[in-house]
Amino acid sequence: MRPTSRKSWIGWLAALLLLGGAVRPDPAWASGDEVLVVYNSRMPASGEVARHYARKRGVPESQLLGLPLPEGANLSRSEYSRGLEEPIRRHLTERGLAEWVPDSTTPASGRVARGGDRLRVARSAVRYLLLCHGVPWYVPQDNSLGEDGRDLPPQLRRNDASVDHELALLARPGLNSAIGVAPNPVLGATNAARIHPTNGVFMVTRLDGLTPEIARGLVDKALEAESRGLWGHAYIDLRGLTEGEYLWGDRMITNAAVAAKRLGFETFVDNQSATFGVGYPLSQVALYIGWYDSGVTGPFYRAQVEFMPGAFAYHLHSFSAANLRSASENWVGPLLARGATATMGCVAEPYLRFTPDLAVFLERWGYAGMTLGEAATASHPVLSWQTVVVGDPLYRPFARPLAEQGRELDSANDPATAHALVRNANLQLLAGRPAEAVRQQLESQRWATNQAVVAEKIARMYWTGIRVRRALEWYETALALTNTTPMQRRRLLLDSVEVHRVIGQPAGAYRCLEELITTAPPDVDPQELRIRQLQFAREMKDIPKITIVSNEIRRLGARP
After folding, report:
1. The pLDDT of residue 9
2. Which of 268, 306, 308, 264 shows the shortest CA–CA distance to 289?
3. Which helix (H) or strand (E) holds 383?
4. Do 484 and 367 fall within a single domain?
5. Fewest CB within a 10 Å sphere: which of 67, 216, 279, 287?
């Protein structure tokens, strides 16, 4: 095998230039000067999270604001207005960070501000509001406000909302306490500068989770991914819908899968109606998007998930963010507890079409190089509703060109080069370069035979090209390496079973299944694997193996 060279990377970069927007100049990094950090002064740990973030991102001391807030999930409407919204606006005004002026324009939402003159932001140095662990996240329904929602559909005659989504409209105070939803004035924005309080929106995210340590770690992992890259695979879990009122959800997530592929991620898409099973080989997760279980299931139920530093994970469910500080309830809290760096969710029923558009999010965050706060805000169809975004608002892992990152990793002999090579290969394939040429380029890299990520990609390319025996050689190369992760090894073995089956090698398939069974996580039922193993034992006409496996199947309660 020939070692890689700088010329190799120059060739890869030339191929990437065919993709146009996929390679872009390195824009200026987002600044901590644009962030107001809000914490609960009644909770010392909340202040620690705020100060940790300020140190890491260079937020001025004058932009840390501690407020005495309830310590639970809920904030009444009056507590929200008097204890959070008004103090934030007063702080920004008194420190000269923002200016509100009378607003004579008609709100795009058609809402009428309650009490006094309408206001709008005319100037603001702050674009982001960051809420820290300890700040409540839900404003419950308040029927005492006497709002008139007769013109709205019955399901929208509500004034409950996430704290975060209400604060997004602080740029036009008074409009966010009304009943129903408010259209997002920057929905789908492609120019990050447009997402600004002078255009009616503050970007609001939070550092949260089961513990303050988890909350603090979100900025640490974001910075690591910005420095070293967000690497790994994308996993998209669809429901396989072809009709009905929920079809829109599957289409949205399908578009997100397309966006993940356009970023070059090795993307695994599941079209089955059920969510990922407990034995699904969820390895080296950079991106996860799925729906529709009420709480963590399948591979996410385990305490350890192979989330890569910087990983974004999202499961669409009406109450996915109902409890941010749990490792077992709903989705947002558990995903953070298992290692995700950023996520989104809903605190109460949002209705499908008012949930974030994940394709828009990935395109803005990944392809346009926006920050997490910018991309998430651009993906919200409405505001003053139910969504929370958890993560560092300045997190921006895709600002630098992929080829530049790859060269740096390669020069530093960093194993993450393997992921950069795979993403580069996928981008070349999208650009129309012949698969054989891309595969040969991969095989020429020194990483091909010492990093399982690259060896697996080569094996999959041979398998797709119906060169099955060559695929098996590369699967065996990957399995022989010590840098496979447990879940990657599981996927390699599952794929190898199929390759052995196709080329008529039942002994090889039997051997792979035996390892799958003996190394399976404790919550994986081996019955299906044993039944498959019995089929191969019969093909081998190996009576002792037939007997052993048959007995195992009976012990598991099934008929062989």
Report:
1. 39
2. 268
3. strand 382-383
4. no
5. 67
Residue type, 259: A
Select from 346, 373, 390 the last residue of a domain: 390
**Domain presence at residue 321:** no
Average pLDDT for 263-291: 95
Could you tell me if residue 201 is inside a domain? yes
Residue 69 has pLDDT above 50, yes or no: yes
Mean pLDDT, range 206-231, rounded to an integer: 97
DSSP-assigned beta bridge partners for residue 237: 270, 290
Count of domains forming the chain: 2
Cα–Cα distance, 544 to 516 (Å, whole number):
20
- The per-residue DSSP string of 186-200 comes to TTT---GGGSSGGGT
Residue 4 included in any domain? no
Residue 555 neighbours by CB distance under 10 Å: 10
- What is the mean predicted confidence (pLDDT) over 253-276? 96
Residue 121 domain-assigned?
A: yes
Mean pLDDT of the chain: 90
CA dist 162 and 347 (Å) reads: 6
**Rounded CA gap, 136 and 131, in Å?**
9
What's the mean pLDDT in 239-267?
95
Round to whole Å and give the CA distance between 502 and 308: 33
The CATH number given to whatever domain includes residue 535 is 1.25.40.10
In our burial notation (b when 16+ CB lie closer than 10 A, e otherwise), range 287-298 reads bbbbbbbebbbb
pLDDT at 457 over 80: yes
pLDDT tens-digit map of 6-43: 344 334 433 433 333 333 434 445 789 999 999 999 99
For the chain, give the number of residues: 560
pLDDT of 490 above 90 = yes
Segment 533-552, tens digit of pLDDT: 999 999 999 999 999 999 99
**What is the enclosing helix (H) or strand (E) of 461?**
helix 452-464
- Nearest CA among 426, 494, 479, 429 for reference residue 449: 479
Half-sphere exposure of 331 (CA within 13 A, CB side): 30
143 and 55 in one domain? yes
Residue 3's pLDDT band (boundaries 50, 70, 90)? Answer: very low
Are the CB atoms for 13 and 429 separated by under 8 Å? no
Both 531 and 383 in one domain: the answer is no
The CB-side HSE value for 99 (13 A sphere, CA atoms) comes to: 4
Q: Of 289, 293, 247, which is closest to residue 268 (Cα–Cα)?
A: 289
